[in-house]
Design brief:
The complex is a heterodimer. By secondary structure, chain A is an all-alpha fold. Chain A has 14 helices and two strands; from the N terminus they run H-H-H-H-H-H-E-E-H-H-H-H-H-H-H-H. Chain A has one domain. In chain A, strand 1 and strand 2 form a beta hairpin. By secondary structure, chain B is an alpha/beta fold. Chain B folds into two domains: 166 residues, Rossmann fold (3-Layer(aba) Sandwich), CATH 3.40.50.300; 66 residues, no CATH class. Chain B is 39% helix and 26% strand. Chain B has nine helices and ten strands. In chain B, the strands form two sheets. Chain B has a six-stranded mixed sheet, sandwiched between helices. Chain B has a four-stranded antiparallel sheet with strand order 2-1-4-5, covered by helices on one side. In chain B, strand 9 and strand 10 form a beta hairpin. Classes of the chains: A mainly alpha, B alpha/beta. At the A-B interface, helix 8 and helix 9 of A face helix 2, helix 3 and helix 5 of B. The structure holds adenosine-5'-triphosphate and magnesium ion. Magnesium ion binds next to helix 1 of chain B.
């Protein structure tokens, strides 16, 4: 009910800036970085829905992304499904994966949730590796069909088209998240997170909310995975690796768990930061250590994340 | 005599070597205010816990609500069926405002939709005289008294048939206890059955139509409050223990 100037205006201003970025960033590499950042922003902000808003320590979130990647890749390449549709298919496929993992996880607590969800990710990766006839195994899949819109080619526009599709997906995903978070359902998630017994005493099924939040958090993560496959035209088991997982997790934590825009801001910042660090010789591998250290520092110094810190620095009158 | 709306049959709760509730059978009649007293550790809260299955169920025994057996139902279903409790320890949804807390209770427990749920939240806030200026603050910023008000209010937003209150007066000032007394009587008049655990005897005796005293998990005495407080066993175990 509180509408503060900063909260309402800043995201719109940021969107306006992002909408005109391709006008100034005309090289495909910078645009590529933004596209990757948008994808990470979708992953991180949807992960934040289960982790931040409902307190479910789901360490299999990147599995939903991977399921989206392979669903789109197989649909588009093996079955000749239109790439646009293939991208969207990543959503329901990831939601089904989320449902499968959610049922056993809903009644578990704390570290057991971490272990089971992480194991689930490993299981899916093993499945992908073993079914090489369908998935390409360790080599993955290449030359996945790309996007077309009538006569418009997404391959010869220096990634302009992909930029706007990725930004559009991020906007829709964010609107979806806001809708969920602001609904009574979204409030029940916080109730479950902060006081399980009290929530149950008010008619809220704790395990049902956990199952639902995992499914909802998977939808746009899976669509982002589908887009990733079509955009890069490859699907590789790397997406299940620890690198992507820890990078996405650091975005959630640095951006601020439970905030709406924190993980999105952090995704943009960290994508460019890792890229900048990669440019420094000798830092190609060490950059992940730098990010890990940054994450620990933020957790020590500003547990609410950088966005909360920023809010504290802004004068009250502006908020 | 009316049928019991809530009934336990030989409920027992064992924690390791400790029997916190032992073979307790009692009935609450529809429309009454039923008081429960007993020294610290006598099993009062544990009895509430096993009746609502929050956070644990009974070791043995049966529980009936509105004539149906409920002790195997999931806790949220028990609450939805109209058996709603408060907690002795402070419980809150720190990120939610009072209004949001009631809204969620009305939506999930009362099965109401958007506008209706919001309307009920507003009505309940007025009913417990919650400060309108503070109803949109996050619960973590509320005073102790406001948190206690909110705890009762959220149970009311659930549209309970039976309201189970665990020491609602603890920590309240005299005038606040007076208001609580009025509220309980007025809620009861509007048709809500109340089960009240209370250490503040003046309140308990003023509102209860029947009283049960527990000691070491067992029923020591039960009946009309005036008779129960005169029972020598109660005087010794309960009042004696506190003196
Ligand atoms: N979860 C638990 N695990 C182990 N023992 C417990 C648990 N809950 C309660 N007990 C024990 O059961 C007994 C009854 O506790 P209970 O909280 O029901 O008492 P009470 O009558 O509500 O007391 P008070 O007036 O202090 O609130 C106590 O000895 C307590 O230590
Ligand atoms: Mg107690």
């Amino acid at each position: 009910m509180k509408t503060s100037l900063l909260r309402a205006a800043l995201p719109l201003a940021a969107l306006a800036v992002l909408a005109v970025v391709p006008v100034f960033a005309i090289d495909s590499f910078t645009r590529h970085l933004f596209i990757i950042a948008f994808i990470y922003a979708i992953i991180a902000s949807n992960w934040n829905l289960s982790l931040g808003h409902c307190g479910v320590f789901n360490f299999g979130h990147l599995t939903f992304f991977g399921v989206g990647v392979y669903t789109a890749a197989i649909a588009a390449k093996t079955y000749g499904v239109d790439p646009w549709i293939a991208i969207l298919l990543g959503g329901p496929a990831a939601a089904v994966a989320a449902f499968l993992i959610a049922a056993p996880v809903a009644r578990l607590k704390g570290i057991y949730v971490v272990l089971v969800t992480f194991a689930f990710g490993q299981l899916v990766m093993q499945l992908v590796l073993s079914q090489s006839a369908t998935t390409g195994g360790a080599q993955g899949m290449v030359r996945i069909p790309y996007l077309r819109l009538g006569d418009y080619s997404f391959l010869k526009d220096y990634k302009l088209g992909y930029y706007y599709v990725a930004l559009g997906l991020l906007v829709v995903s964010t609107l979806f998240l806001k809708l969920v978070i602001d609904s009574p359902f979204g409030k029940s998630l916080k109730a479950v997170r902060d006081a399980e017994d009290y929530a149950a005493a008010r008619g809220i099924s704790v395990s049902r909310q956990r199952i639902l939040v995992l499914i909802l958090s998977a939808i746009f993560t899976g669509i982002a995975g589908g887009f990733y496959a079509i955009y890069l035209r490859v699907a590789s088991p790397d997406v299940f690796g620890f690198g992507t997982l820890s990078l996405a997790l650091s975005m959630v934590l640095i951006g601020g768990v439970g905030t709406t825009y924190g993980p999105i801001a952090a995704a943009l910042a960290l994508t460019f930061a890792t890229e900048a660090l990669a440019g420094i010789r000798g830092f190609e591998e060490a950059r992940f250590i730098v990010i890990a250290v940054a994450m620990i520092l933020v957790l020590r110094l500003a547990p609410g994340g950088l966005l909360r810190l920023l809010e504290l620095l802004v004068p009250k009158s502006l908020r | 005599m009316t049928d019991p709306i809530l009934q336990t049959k030989s409920v027992t709760k064992v924690f390791g070597g400790l029997t916190a509730v032992k073979d307790v059978s009692f009935e609450v009649r529809a429309g009454e205010i039923f008081g429960i007293a007993g020294p610290n550790g006598s099993g009062k809260s544990t009895l509430f816990n096993i009746i609502t299955s929050i956070p644990f169920t009974a070791t043995s025994g049966e529980i009936y609500f509105k004539g149906e057996r409920i002790d195997r139902r999931p806790p949220y279903r028990i609450a939805q069926s109209g058996l709603c409790r408060t907690f002795q320890k402070d419980a809150e949804f720190p990120d939610l405002s009072a209004r949001e807390t009631l809204l969620v209770s009305a939506v999930y427990n009362g099965r109401l939709r958007g506008g209706e749920a919001a309307a009920r939240a507003g009505r309940v806030l007025e009913r417990v005289e919650f400060s309108a200026a503070r109803s949109d603050l996050p619960s973590r910023d509320l005073s102790i008294y406001e948190k206690k008000q909110l705890m009762i209010a959220s149970a009311l937003a659930c549209d309970p048939a039976v309201l189970m209150l665990d020491e609602p007066a603890s920590g309240l000032t005299k005038p606040e206890i007076g208001k609580l007394d009025d509220l309980l009587v007025s809620l009861n008049r509007s048709g809500i059955t109340i089960v009240l655990i209370e250490h503040v005897l003046s309140l308990l005796l003023s509102v209860s139509q029947r009283l049960m005293v527990l000691n070491y998990g067992e029923i020591l005495a039960a009946g009309a409050p005036a008779d129960v407080v005169k029972d020598p066993a109660v005087v010794e175990a309960y009042l004696g223990a506190r003196a």
